[in-house]
């Protein structure tokens, strides 16, 4: 599992922008900025859609006051699902990154099986702050496990991430 002080894995996200395939590499995305990254089990799922994603979008100005350049949501979903979800959520401040094959999520040690819910492999819920691609703060939810019967949502809650960021 990734830790504070580690560099993000070198992974390429395959996205669709304006009808064209675009590849975005973690080094290119995160090398020149301080960002919040949060991972969640899936687009259009209840906690992710009703609480976590919209709250990060609402609090973006407060994160910006703490020198956060961007906020990224990463999920093990394809680019079409992530783009549709971003449109559905009417996002203004959070950028979505599709991790369709789970390579980034696996690379940071957050890939779990959710076969008990019919999801297959997905992300365990977490949040982190990275600066130039280096992890400054890492907040994985407790109880990490495959086919976990619960879906904790405390440490990666946007309000908690903001509180922990203020301590840095």
Q: N-to-C SSE series?
A: EEHEHHEHEHEEEEH
Helix content range of the residues, please?
25-40%
Order the strands across the largest sheet as they lie in space: 5-4-3-8-9
Strand content: 25-35%
**Low-confidence segments:** none
Bulk shape: globular
Number of helical segments with 4 or more residues: 6
SS elements, strand count: 9
Mean of all residue-level pLDDT scores: 97
Q: Could you say which structural class the secondary elements and strand pairing correspond to?
A: alpha/beta
Notes on the protein architecture:
This protein is of the alpha/beta class and 168 residues long. It is globular and about 40 Å long.
Output the keywords.
single chain, about 170 residues, alpha/beta, 5-stranded mixed β-sheet, two-stranded antiparallel sheet, 9 strands
In short:
The protein has six helices and nine strands; from the N terminus they run ββαβααβαβαββββα.
Task: Give the helices and strands, then pairings.
Elements: E1 12-17, E2 20-25, H1 26-30, E3 34-40, H2 46-58, H3 60-64, E4 70-75, H4 79-89, E5 94-98, H5 103-107, E6 111-113, E7 121-123, E8 126-131, E9 134-140, H6 158-167
Parallel strand pairs: 3-4, 4-5
Antiparallel strand pairs: 1-2, 3-8, 6-7, 8-9
């Amino acid at each position: 599992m990734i830790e504070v002080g580690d560099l993000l894995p070198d992974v390429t996200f395959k996205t669709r922008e304006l009808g064209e395939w675009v590849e975005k590499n973690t080094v290119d995305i995160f090398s020149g900025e301080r960002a919040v990254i949060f991972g969640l089990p899936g687009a259009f799922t209840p906690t992710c859609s009703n609480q976590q994603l919209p709250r990060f979008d609402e609090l973006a100005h407060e994160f910006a006051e703490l020198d956060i350049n961007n906020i990224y949501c990463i999920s093990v979903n394809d680019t079409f699902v992530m783009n549709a979800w971003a449109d559905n959520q009417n996002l203004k401040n959070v950028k979505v990154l599709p991790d369709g094959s789970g390579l980034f999520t696996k690379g940071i040690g957050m890939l779990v099986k959710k076969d008990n819910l019919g999801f297959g492999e997905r992300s365990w819920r977490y949040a982190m702050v990275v600066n130039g691609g280096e992890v400054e703060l890492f907040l994985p939810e407790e109880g990490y496990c495959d086919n976990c019967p619960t879906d904790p949502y405390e440490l990666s809650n946007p309000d908690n991430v903001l509180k922990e960021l203020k301590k840095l």
